[in-house]
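Entry 12.
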Amino acid sequence: MNTRFFIHLATLSALLGYATSCAVNPVTGKKQLVLMSEAQEIAMGKQSDPEIVAYFGLYEDLELQKFITLKGTEMAAISHRPKLAYEFKIVDSPVINAFAVPGGYVYFTRGIMAHFNNEAEFAGVLGHEIGHITARHSVIQQRNQILGQVGLIAGVILVPEISQFVEPLSQGMQLALLSFGRDAERQSDELGVEYSSKIGYDATEMAGFFKTLERQGAKSGAGEIPEFLSTHPSPAERNVTVARLAEEWKQKLALTDPEINRNSYLKKIDGIVLGEDPRQGFLENSIFYHPVLKFQFPTPQSWSFQNTPQQVQMAPKTGDALISLTLAKGNTPEEAAQAFVQQYKLELVESKKETINGLPAFLVIADQKSEKGTIRVLSTMIQFNGNLYHIMGISELSKFPTYQPTFMATVRNFQELKDAEKLNRKPELLRLRTLNQTMTLQAALQSFNMPKERFDELAILNGMQLTDQINAGTIIKVIGN
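Predicted 3D structure (tokens):
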């Protein structure tokens, strides 16, 4: 018996306010040590949901939302935890991902919805995510891994004192980013097959979608794996296992003609936004443009870049500086600057009113001193179009003279966006086309005037190879507006 383990667990439980107890896992029927009751799990989900929605934004497509709610509710009813109040949402992100948080909240990105090629693929992943909830994987992972994550770009910041200025991730986003062990992923694969089979789908299709994800990862370069696959068993292993389990469930349920529903699903995603939505801001030739808020500013070349609904952040590969842009509160730039200095207990070095490209502004240089050294901050508040924008440049004091010209280049070139082409930039949309004769996918893409450099991307989007022969009358996905 490891006495220290139980002392540590009791202390951890007290710190977190969770109840340490043994509970029966709804899926396995076995007892397991958990740090929270079901009521606490549900409360965690309720708190996390608005934080996740605020971070990503919801994808506004009423019919597609109705579809995932209908299928999710149908699947939840036959799951191991049918009494949870499940919610199913599509979030506005191009990343190919699906995730769940405790208490019954399941999220699909528009990116993953665009890459499914039939309802059965979707149903398999839906079952997989519900499986994480029914098997309480997030709760178990909370027991194993107490998170201390901050904003995503903090991973490249190597000076801890700078990380405090990065907007911390909410608890909800930390839960959304939880990764599970391979055993948990295998169990969720099994549950995905079981649940999707029980509502009448051909679970074999789920394995084919994992192949699409693997191809997308290889295309991204450097062996990069999509987030959804990052801790999962290998696609080759999954294909074999999922296919075997699907056949077993077909026999158990006497499914002679399980549903795939390719065409009906494709029609549901006709017009979905592909890739980054320029209306949320976009980076082009080292300049960030925001067509809706109508501003632009330059970004340092070769710096890591991250755009979220809350902020824009940039950091050099050396990890010893940070530039960020957020919205600030206050009636004037000077008032907002004073509040910022007080919030972080900074020592003022200098401050002055400015006019930047015709816009009222207030600049502050201030220090934060500690035993580990001094951090210097260039804080600029700019008033534009009814908003106060806060641009921060931060580095260690010794490196501030090196980075100050870079910080100032971003600040001094913040300006109103007037370029009509940028203001009117439209997102790319997924569109459907029907083949009028049998041909290869490559020939079909050529016939629909798709750019040659996008052929590989479109092959993955369609879950096909460019050399595949496609029958006349088949619907395929293309890129349009």
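Annotation: The chain has a mean pLDDT of 86. The radius of gyration is 25 Å.
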